[in-house]
Amino acid sequence: MDLVQIPFHNQHITAALVDEKPHVALRPLCESIGLDYSGQRQRLERTSWATVGVIPTVGADGRSRDMVMIDRRTFTMWLATIDTSRLKSEQTRHLVEEYQREAADALDAYFNNGGAINPRATEHQINSLIYQSRAQLELCQAAKGLIHPDHLEAKARVVLARGLGEHAQLDPSRAPLYTQDYLKQRGITGKALSSMSGVFGKRVKAEYVKKYGTEPEKYPLNVKNGQTRNVLAYTEADRALMDQVWEAHYGETDSSVPMLDVA
């Protein structure tokens, strides 16, 4: 893997393409901004959102060496979480703090306004976002009759608002609600979530069929690993149904303790 030097605010970042995706060499980056490489590597390796790997590389001198690399997503998040008081250079500290303020604004807009657009985005990037939103809306249109109309309308409104840079106006009762999100709101996480989500979902489905005489529609959901899987498409109108199942089977269980669920 050949290394390249990317100019970055009067400095250089050592990077390489891994599976056609940009990755940044962690040690040179830490050294260039005055952070302890060993400590930062340990911190990233125990962080859930970070992707850290050892990649065989070839430097400008032609020598082969293994380097610890982080992907672009990890690099972006890592910069936002650096303790700037540890940075030795005032110029670097100012640069990272400016980045962190912008990152905080972007995250706030994403979670509270439905999306964020970089003011420095190129015409090509903006057109790409428009194309993506249009494709998603066309997919929603094609899914009519296959997915619960309330759930489908809510998803379409979210896509449209994101494309317009606005906050989606949703009927609260029509907002999508997934069983796993419901369990997380109940404080179930980690192994406990994995152990009980399947059976909980089956119980909610059974109650739904009992109440409406038909099975809930399914929705293709993009999961963290990039794959798409079909999940049952409930909405907030079904929260009472989930509450009913919860109280019947888990109401007196301490949610902080992993549970072994049985059918």
Describe what this molecule looks like in 3D.
With 263 residues, the protein is α+β, with helices and mostly antiparallel strands. It has three domains: 4-112, no CATH class; 123-170; 176-249, no CATH class. Helix content is 49%, strand content 18%. The chain is built from nine helices and nine strands. The protein has helices at 26-33, 37-45, 72-81, 90-113, 123-142, 149-164, 179-185, 190-212, 239-249, and strands at 4-8, 11-18, 21-25, 52-58, 64-71, 176-177, 218-222, 228-232, 234-235. The strands form three sheets. Strands 1-2-3-5-4 form a five-stranded antiparallel beta sheet. β7 and β8 form a beta hairpin.
- Proportion of residues in helical segments: 40-55%
Number of discrete domains: 3
Strands of the largest sheet, in order across it? 1-2-3-5-4
Give the CA-based shape. Answer: elongated
Average of the residue pLDDT scores: 76
Q: In this structure, how is the largest beta sheet organized?
A: 5 strands, antiparallel
N/C terminus separation: 50 Å
The number of E-state strands comes to 9
The H/E string reads EEEHHEEHHHHEHHEEEH
Number of helices: 9
Strand content: 15-25%
Residue runs with pLDDT of under 50 for 5 or more positions: 254-263
Helix-strand blueprint:
Layout: E1 4-8, E2 11-18, E3 21-25, H1 26-33, H2 37-45, E4 52-58, E5 64-71, H3 72-81, H4 90-113, H5 123-142, H6 149-164, E6 176-177, H7 179-185, H8 190-212, E7 218-222, E8 228-232, E9 234-235, H9 239-249
Antiparallel strand pairs: 1-2, 2-3, 3-5, 4-5, 6-9, 7-8
Helix pairs in contact: 1-2, 5-6, 7-8, 8-9
